[in-house]
């Protein structure tokens, strides 16, 4: 859960003048680089409202949302997903146990809506919950209130910065639709992709397609305007202000200004030019996590066995990075930490444990992001090893 009332007040409305001035300076710098004039706000939209997408948008809203004349932050999600009774009841438990959240909802006259949804016949929808500061799949962590848009065209048509937070399996489809709304654009947007995962193409030779490449092909936005941000980021822990870091990777033009804009005291953002390596490793770690779960279950949580497995993973990562880039960055910092934290915690590690224990079959777990990548990577690596 997010911290106490004192923490929330600092997080939301208790900023000092010094903090506000520093944030406004960073905002003004980015606005200037984008050619924004007075009266023309910087428009940022998050596409996708899962846990990490919601937290990322909320971090920006918490930091910069107070400068309403200079920036507008909104989030898009698919409309119409009804919340079941169990989820609604749990939502109420969270609301009623948190005095700061309860006061906020009463002040915004939103609490009555939840009373109707809880006690009456009215259906409560996920976009309403997100708008009032609750992510559907992270309901224990109240977010700041966000402007929610359920029409994709309305969300993105004039956006200056688009944050891709949909899964890699949906990235191509979503951005092919977005490209239809950008045909008349004069300015070129910046896209920051949070997606982790890859696809394989067999022609002309087997090769990997990353989410940023999918976006480039779907929209025609030049690669220098498409960046990847990744790191050891567990969404609920990031929003709880646990210390974390990440790397934003891409061309020189935008990565350093964006790293400065996104950086916060508890969320340190570095920058790096090695886009492909970071993006592929961001997906590959999900495969390693399945194996880590299996090793943990089969060795009764042996620290020695898990460390040997981690050493093998890092050796393979080094081999793959040299296949993908002529001068890859060393596996250090957020890139390696992202692998480490995924091996420790998450759905992929859980899936590996359940497989090893025989408690689920291999046919279960279609939403496990590492499962589909195993075959993809096998095709690519087989091709390269044959050449070598």
UniProtKB/TrEMBL annotation:
Does Oxidoreductase appear among the keywords? yes
Domain (Glycerol-3-phosphate dehydrogenase NAD-dependent N-terminal) ranges: 146-248
Annotated Glycerol-3-phosphate dehydrogenase NAD-dependent C-terminal domain residues = 274-367
**Broadest EC class assigned to this enzyme:** oxidoreductase
* Residues noted as binding substrate in the record, renumbered to the chain: 196, 347-348
Q: Which reaction does it catalyse?
A: sn-glycerol 3-phosphate + NAD(+) = dihydroxyacetone phosphate + NADH + H(+)
Per the Swiss-Prot or TrEMBL record, the active site comprises 285 (proton acceptor)
Offer one example of a GO biological process linked to this entry.
carbohydrate metabolic process
- InterPro entries (alphabetical): 6-PGluconate_DH-like_C_sf (IPR008927), 6PGD_dom2 (IPR013328), G3P_DH_NAD-dep (IPR006168), G3P_DH_NAD-dep_C (IPR006109), G3P_DH_NAD-dep_N (IPR011128), NAD(P)-bd_dom_sf (IPR036291)
What Gene Ontology cellular-component terms does the record carry?
cytosol
Cited Pfam families: NAD_Gly3P_dh_C, NAD_Gly3P_dh_N
Question: Which amino acid positions bind NAD(+), per UniProt?
Answer: 235, 347
| Keywords from the UniProt entry | NAD, Oxidoreductase
An example of a GO molecular function for this protein is:
glycerol-3-phosphate dehydrogenase (NAD+) activity
Task: Give the EC number(s) listed in the UniProt record.
Answer: 1.1.1.8
**Family label:** Belongs to the NAD-dependent glycerol-3-phosphate dehydrogenase family.
Q: What's the protein here called?
A: Glycerol-3-phosphate dehydrogenase [NAD(+)]
